[in-house]
């Protein structure tokens, strides 16, 4: 808990959706801070994450409109409403954020109107949170993936790029969630002082397996049963779906593959190619994911680009050895050969080779599972909240003297 000499921070977290915001808000509240969450989720859902309803400001109509738009966009051939939706949420938040706050922690894409409204007289610091790599890096990687896959890939538009770059400029600092994302900003010419690295976290109490589940996995591996290869998230080119199909095609006769999550409409052709190779489980609430991780023996995540994929930390906390790429938080939380392996992007053959190694070296794989609790690098949310304080307080300067 905070020392009595510390004054609670007044933090407004502004998020169009959920991302990691709900967990961070809960952890900061637990440390005694004055936190408000501005979101487009209904309050009754937010409170399930342990956040008191009086701490929530909900733009309910925006959440409903956004979900309806994305559900009907492709079916009805709707025009691009994203600019309007983003601006409207930003305008809504700008009217409700506290003008005497210490921190405005807003997610990229909806921060422009908010930061302009706060202006230069805002006594606190304006932080824009980028959940992925720099938006130009993301777009370049996804454009390359579109050419490789031969199907349209959902990627940032010129409007998205220009808007986010304005937000980066308006913010006092840009918060990134992994070293990979930080490096992408440095490569785009940002000064290191402009970037704050705040590694995301995981709910360790929820995803840590019980002794019996861990023993079941170890026994399964040592018994020589077909390995259970799991992936959780979105079945899309950005997440490496094209490569996952190739891996499953090479090994499906010897291993079982399961994907848990959503399949965007634009990925229907990839989904069709995966039939018979991968078992699909529809997207599940976070609270129901631990049982899916319990099914797995290894976690395969061949992502093309990510900031801090929550599923990677969840898998590691669930004692699942991971196979993933460096284009995410893996360099921060995966110790190669101890709790998983970091393999090149767009290299299904490398993933196949490593899975074959796991199949041949059952005792080594079982030992890795047994020892993963000794090499866990994923942070619990209480640690993230503490790190948040360490990053923010030195920036507040005279603002911290306000009573």
Structure overview:
The chain is α/β, with parallel strands linked by helices and 403 residues long. It has two domains: 10-202 and 381-401, 3-Layer(aba) Sandwich (Rossmann fold); 207-378, Glycogen Phosphorylase B (Rossmann fold). 44% of the residues lie in helices and 16% in strands. The protein has 18 helices and 15 strands. The strands form three sheets. Strands 3-2-1-4-5-6-7 form a seven-stranded parallel beta sheet, sandwiched between helices. Residues 1-5 and 398-403 have low confidence and may be disordered.
CATH topology of the largest domain: Rossmann fold
Q: What's the number of domains?
A: 2
Q: Mean pLDDT, rounded to whole units?
A: 94
Residue runs with pLDDT of under 50 for 5 or more positions:
1-5, 398-403
User: What CATH architecture of the largest domain would you give?
Assistant: 3-Layer(aba) Sandwich
Q: Total helix count?
A: 18
Instruction: Please give the alpha-carbon distance between the first and last residues.
Output: 20 Å
Instruction: Please indicate the percent range of residues in DSSP E strands (runs of 2 or more).
Output: 15-25%
How many strand elements?
Answer: 15
Strand order of the largest sheet: 3-2-1-4-5-6-7
Shape type: globular
Helix-and-strand structural type = alpha/beta
Which CATH class of the largest domain applies here?
Answer: Alpha Beta
Portion in helices: 40-55%
Largest sheet: number of strands, sense, barrel closure = 7 strands, parallel
* Chain oligomer state: single chain
């Amino acid at each position: 808990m905070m020392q009595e000499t510390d004054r609670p921070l007044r933090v407004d977290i502004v998020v169009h959706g959920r991302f990691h915001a709900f967990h961070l808000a809960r952890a900061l509240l637990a440390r005694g801070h004055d936190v408000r969450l501005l979101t487009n989720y209904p309050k009754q859902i937010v409170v399930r994450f342990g956040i008191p309803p009086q701490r929530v400001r909900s733009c309910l109509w925006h959440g409903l409109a956004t979900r309806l738009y994305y559900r009907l966009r492709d079916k009805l051939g709707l025009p691009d409403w994203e600019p309007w939706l983003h601006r409207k949420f930003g305008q809504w938040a700008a009217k409700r954020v506290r003008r005497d706050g210490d921190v405005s922690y807003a997610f990229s894409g909806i921060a422009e109107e908010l930061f302009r409204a706060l202006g230069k007289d805002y006594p606190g610091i304006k932080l824009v949170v980028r959940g992925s790599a720099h938006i130009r890096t993301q777009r370049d990687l996804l454009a390359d993936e579109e050419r490789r896959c031969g199907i349209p890939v959902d990627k940032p538009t010129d409007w998205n790029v220009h808007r986010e770059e304005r937000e980066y400029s308006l913010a006092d600092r840009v918060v990134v969630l992994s070293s990979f994302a930080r490096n992408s900003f440095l490569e785009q010419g940002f000064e290191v002082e402009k970037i704050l690295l705040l590694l995301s976290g995981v709910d360790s109490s929820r995803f840590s397996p019980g002794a019996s589940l861990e023993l079941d996995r170890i026994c399964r591996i040592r018994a020589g049963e077909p390995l259970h290869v799991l992936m959780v998230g979105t079945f899309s080119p950005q997440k490496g779906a094209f490569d996952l199909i190739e891996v499953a095609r090479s090994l499906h006769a010897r291993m079982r593959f399961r994907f848990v999550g959503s399949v965007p409409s634009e990925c229907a052709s990839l989904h069709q190619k995966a039939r018979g190779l991968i078992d699909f489980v529809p997207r599940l609430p976070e609270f129901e994911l631990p049982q899916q991780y319990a099914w797995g023996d290894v976690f395969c995540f061949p992502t093309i680009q990510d900031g801090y994929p929550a599923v990677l930390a969840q898998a590691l906390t669930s004692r699942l050895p991971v196979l993933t790429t460096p284009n995410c938080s893996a360099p921060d939380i995966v110790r190669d050969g101890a709790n998983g392996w970091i393999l090149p992007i767009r290299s299904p053959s490398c993933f196949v080779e490593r899975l074959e190694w796991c199949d041949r070296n059952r005792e080594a794989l079982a030992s890795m599972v047994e020892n993963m609790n000794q090499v866990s690098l994923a942070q619990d949310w209480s640690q993230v909240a503490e790190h948040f304080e360490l990053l923010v307080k030195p920036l507040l300067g005279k603002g911290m003297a306000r009573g």
